Give the backbone structure.
Amino acid sequence: MNPPASRNIDRRHALAETSPMTDQAPANELSPENLSRRLIRASDRAVLSTAMTGDGWPYGSLVLTACDHAARPLLLISELAEHTKNLGGDARASLLFDGTAGLDSPLTGARVTVMGRLTPTEDAALIARYVARHPDAEMYLGFADFRLFEMAVERAHIVAGFGAIHWIPAPDLLFDTGGHEDLATAESDIVGHMNEDHADAVQLYATNLLGLGAGDWKMTGVDPEGIDLRDGGRIARLDFEKPAADAEAARGSLVRLVKAARR
């Protein structure tokens, strides 16, 4: 399910200094908590580490990820996979999100390890959010052995370059969605409206604000802190100037962003 090499995801746009017209803080000015959360939201894959059933050996595997509005990671995985079998014996796991792609010196880039317990969820909204992030995943939902897992985060560890190393407890890492439930309810409507009625604005978000190449960019999600975009195998993240309290505030942020893009 990985994209071909010519369509590799460029995560630099998620973490590099962004255009001043978007009013987004450069990565090196973000707090460790905000930088970690931005990286989790901007990524569509991670290295999952679990403990092998029986002998406890660490087992690493590549998984495709999404997250909920608080930035809790989501995985759609098969019960036949080794990592899922491992989770059946020990739900503890870690996910390594890598933001170093494309850097001349990768060790100067940010990477965050998120630790917690992965358990299955039947939440329809979370399943829909994952499939919007990974359209190819829809075909796997019909297979009896595939289930969505959500991580109950306990802490995270970020390395954002030499000497920039921090442990982050879950309450500081996760976005507090209390009072933002309206946006989660309206998310699918907002995304559908933007893709169907304002496709030109979505293209401008990617090209004019993020400096990405033209394509068939689609919005795949909106949360209090920003929006997710996708064009085939390419993904992008565009943050709001400030968190959106509700659906109306998110719509206002989208309007301001497209005005900035047109300038």
Observations:
- Residues 21-176 form a domain with the Pnp Oxidase; Chain A fold (CATH 2.30.110.10).
- Helices lie at 12-15, 32-42, 82-89, 124-133, 170-173, 181-197, 199-209, 247-262.
- Strands lie at 45-51, 58-67, 73-78, 92-98, 111-121, 146-159, 165-169, 218-223, 226-231, 234-239.
- The longest strand covers residues 146-159.
